Amino acid sequence: MILGLDTSCYTTSMVLVDIQTQEIRFEKNVLLRVKAGSKGLRQSDGFYQHVHQLADSFEALTAIFDVKNLRAIAVSDAPRNVSGSYMPVFNAGVLFARNLSNALGIPMFTFSHQEGHLMAALATSGIGRIPHKFYGLHLSGGTTEFLDVDYSNKIFKIDLIGETLDLNFGQLIDRIGVEMGLDFPCGKALDEMAGRSQATQYKEVPLKVDTAEHACFGFNISGLENYFKSLIGKVENEEIARILFNTIAHILENCLKGFESDRAVIISGGVASNCIIRAYLNQYYDQLYFAKPEYSRDNAYGIALLGREKIFMEGAL
Hints:
Layout: E1 2-7, E2 11-17, E3 24-31, H1 43-62, E4 72-78, H2 90-104, E5 108-112, H3 113-124, E6 133-139, E7 144-152, E8 155-164, H4 169-179, H5 187-194, E9 208-209, E10 217-219, H6 222-231, H7 237-256, E11 265-268, H8 275-282, E12 288-290, H9 293-296, H10 301-314
Parallel strand pairs: 1-4, 4-5, 6-11, 8-10, 11-12
Antiparallel strand pairs: 1-2, 2-3, 6-7, 7-8, 9-10
Helix pairs in contact: 1-2, 3-10, 4-6, 5-7, 7-8
């Protein structure tokens, strides 16, 4: 068995995976607590909650599994696999994994949170064999990125080709939801609200080619925050939610138009679990592969699978 850990900004994730079959034998994903009316957490508060929730999850794991039978641990240690990518919350998982690795005398492997999202999406999207080259969309509260991915020798080589230039989609969704009086994070509640509206309109957002330092294209969406906030109290919340998701879907459609049509597009991140965005994009593209909704959101399954690949590569068992 291999243990996977991920301590992202808003979810503590622990999963136990059978190395031979890839089957999940234990899984626990716990949202961090955010005060009502707040739009997020400080990193120090997130770290504190992760430490306690890792202990609780591990206690639940040890009630059904003898951890002396673990063969390896895999953990996320950074948002992205690039120099300078860092968030303190990931240290909670790394320190927990390091202590357990030393105590049990088993290998520990580290991967980026983004790599975990990609692998979870690949494993649950139904694509089958992982293609050598594909596009990745990582859409969450902390990331809105369009990726050119090369998967060779069971290692991801990821190049950024597009991104938001200000807010992330998840941030926009949560800020509008909190303004409506919803509890943070707001994506699921807004998704349900939007499903009760038949609105078809959206706000146009232009793409800016070659404006981002490390990307081929970018776009600004901070203006959308003011626009949607201005509608609250004047338009039904269900309609606002629907127009918001229509707008995000339309932005994504415009971005995808520049992609090579014969390459698969793997979509992950919490925003990718939205049913309106999925249905909209699936009308226009045949090569889209979405992670299952529960594995679009933050999880440790992809991290565990990456560790499994590492085991076989290095003959660590």
